[in-house]
Design goal:
mainly alpha, 2 helices, 0% strand
């Protein structure tokens, strides 16, 4: 995939990282939320929104 701007690449990388974090969350019936992981996910969402 070719990116025209550095910002496009950064958005893509943040989206990939966010998707990885979302998919690694355990099912609700055995969910014990890792607060650090949750905070990291929130930060990545905010970063993604700011870049857009």
């Amino acid at each position: 995939m070719v990116f025209r701007r550095f910002e496009d690449l950064r958005v893509f990388q943040l989206a990939e990282q966010l998707a990885d974090e979302i998919w690694t969350i355990e099912p609700a019936h055995k969910l014990k939320i890792d607060q650090n992981k949750l905070q990291n996910c929130r930060s990545n969402i905010l970063n993604l929104v700011n870049v857009l």
